[in-house]
Structure formats: C-alpha cells, structure tokens
Amino acid sequence: MVGPTLQGTKRYIIRRMSSLRGMTSLYNLQIDKNMRIELKYFTGTGNSLKVLNTSKDVFTEANHTTGISAIGLNEKSLNGSDLLGFCFPVYAFGIPRICRKYLKKMKKFNRKQNTFIIITAGDPDESGFSVNECVRILRKKNCEVIYTAVLQMPINWTVSMNPPSKEEYIPIIHEGVKQSRAIATDLLNGIKKHHTFNIPKRYGRFGLYKEYLLFKYLGIYNLWRLFQVYDSCNGCQICSKICPTNSITMVGKKPKWGSTCEQCMRCVNFCPNKSIYQSYNGDTTARNRYYEPDFKPSLRKDLA
Ligand SMILES: Cc1cc2nc3c(=O)[nH]c(=O)nc-3n(C[C@H](O)[C@H](O)[C@H](O)COP(=O)(O)O)c2cc1C
Ligand code: SF4
Ligand code: SF4
Fold first, then answer.
1. d(CA 190, CA 11)
2. What distance in angstroms lies between residue 246's CA and the mean position of ligand 3's atoms?
3. Residue 179 is part of a domain; what is its CATH number?
C-alpha cells in the first residue's frame, strides 16, 4: 500500500503546485485505475507517429492499456476510452484534409470523452488554425478537450523548402521527444493545458488567412497535378507502395499522382533516387530529404 499512497501524494503535490502557478487547471481523470487509452495519428514522414509513440511509452510505463493506430477513413467509429489522443502534422496552417474528414465523420460519443491533441509543426510559431480546427470539430462530438499542444519537429515539405540536414534534425527530434514525454506526464498528473492561438510573425494576419484558405480550398485538391519525375526515376514502385492514401499508380514504369494525394511528402522523401519534384518552384535537386529515422512505412502488398 505504501507505493500507491506515495504516488498519490506526489501527484497531489504536482497538481497543487501547477494550479498555484496559475498556468494550468486540473481535469477529472481516474488516473489511479488502469486506464484504457486510445491514440490515433496521421503521418507523412514519421514525426507525428514518433511523438505519439513516445506518449504511448509513458502511458504504458504507468501500466495503462494503450493502443495506437493510424486514422483511416474506412475504419469503424471509436467506441470511447478513458483517454483519447490525436497527433497530426500542420499543413499550411490547418490540419491535413484526411484528418479533417476523419474527425468530422467520427460518431458522436455517448458520454463525455476526455481528449487531447498534439500538432507537430516545422515551426511552432506557424501552427495557425490547426489546433482550433480540431477542437471545434471534437467539441461537436461530445469530446472534452483537456490538453492541446504544438510541438516542433523537423520540416518535411521538400517541394516547398529545404528540410534540415541530419546534424540539424537530430536535436529537433530529441527536443520533440522530450516535450512529448512531458505532455504525457502532465496528462497522467491530471493537468489541463491549452495552446494559445497566435498570428505567425513571418506572415501576419493577411498572410495567415490567405495561405490557409488557398490551401484548404484549392491547394490540396490540385497540387498533385504538379508532381513530376526526373530522368533518374527507374520505376522501382517504392513511392506507389508506401503512399498512405494509395494515390500513386504506375503507368508505363512511371508514377502518376491522383487527387486523393494529401501532400504528405512521404513519396518525395523516401524515393531512393531523389527523383520526385513539382513544377512551379518545386525543384528538389539541391534539397535534403527528411523522414524520422525510426519510421518504416508499411508497403502495399498488391503491387508486384
Ligand atoms: C504540405 C505541408 C504543409 C506544411 N505546412 C506547415 C505549416 O503551415 N506550418 C508549419 O509549422 N509546418 C508545416 N509543415 C511541416 C510539417 O507540419 C512538419 O514537418 C510535421 O512535423 C510533419 O509531420 P509528419 O512527419 O508526421 O508528417 C508542412 C508540411 C507539409 C508537407
Ligand atoms: S520511388 Fe522514385 S525511382 Fe522509384 S518509381 Fe517512384 S519516383 Fe521512380
Ligand atoms: S502521393 Fe506522395 S505526397 Fe501524396 S499522399 Fe501519397 S506519399 Fe503523400
């Protein structure tokens, strides 16, 4: 009995100190029992999975039963759990279209569902409306959003900017993992925190709205049309096998992109010959490639 009592006292002190500091408030979670925790992610290059897997480790170490899986538009609605967590990347100040669709399609929970959201961003100042978008949809689904956070992870938008080199991205990942452990620990201590919306310094209010609306209503629906391959493409099919939305078909040994593409950059960053680029300023010849080093995308088996 000594263990649980000491743990309970420690947790009480942490919660009390946090509330006295005025930074946080507390939420009501039965953290002493074995909780059932469900974690859902979308990832192009592994950052969001790394962050959520780190939280999973913390929950599992504390003896909570934790499941983690990718979102899928054809999956059955969630049944409800003691704690539900999402982790998505930010795309042009919003969430990926597939994540928005998934959240909107989710069935309303019968009971209040404690939920947390983590957004991974190349620049934490540029998370835009991503958190707010999730919160707005989740509240309609009877979710009590108890914790929201934006974590910096390496930029993967290779057709738009140069991702960091290995020397540059290792410390960024290290810090992201540290922060995701801290978030999971906060959650287990019943601490409630919320990301504060801000206008990105580099863009200003006008730039933020312009980029967000253009990308949401035009970009994602059309940017797949810009994909091209250099002569170095040898038809290996890897891009087609790893695409999370099955948006690439091989036509005459060359990849062809389709409209379900989410611009997740997995194909661009994993192509072994660095062959993929986009027309209109999307030349990738001189750019680094990035994916989270532990990330191993699964391969579609229906292609020979
Ligand atoms: C199409 C696209 C748009 C992006 N837009 C933003 C953005 O607006 N702000 C930002 O900070 N990072 C942006 N990024 C960077 C990603 O959000 C970041 O690298 C994220 O951690 C990638 O996560 P993943 O590896 O789980 O896919 C963008 C990346 C892509 C591919
Ligand atoms: S992964 Fe690269 S080399 Fe292989 S088919 Fe796709 S574009 Fe061509
Ligand atoms: S085609 Fe490429 S960028 Fe588009 S969803 Fe598939 S892997 Fe991602």
1. 8
2. 8
3. 3.40.50.360
- The pLDDT tens digits for 43-95 are 999 999 999 999 999 999 999 999 999 999 888 889 989 999 999 999 999 99
Asked if residue 236 belongs to a domain, the reply is: no
How many domains is the chain built from? 1
Indicate whether 42 belongs to any domain. Answer: yes
Domain extent for 37: 33-192
Whether residue 222 is predicted with pLDDT greater than 90 in this model: the reply is yes
33: pLDDT confidence band, cut at 50, 70 and 90? Answer: confident
The band of 30, judged by pLDDT with boundaries at 50, 70 and 90, is low
C-alpha distance from residue 102 to each of 105, 143, 195, 258 (Å): 5, 15, 22, 20
- Mutational test site, ligand 3, from 156, 226, 243, max ligand atoms within 8 Å of CB: 243
- Ligand 3, atom 4: closest residue by C-alpha: 261
**Has residue 106 been placed in a domain?**
yes
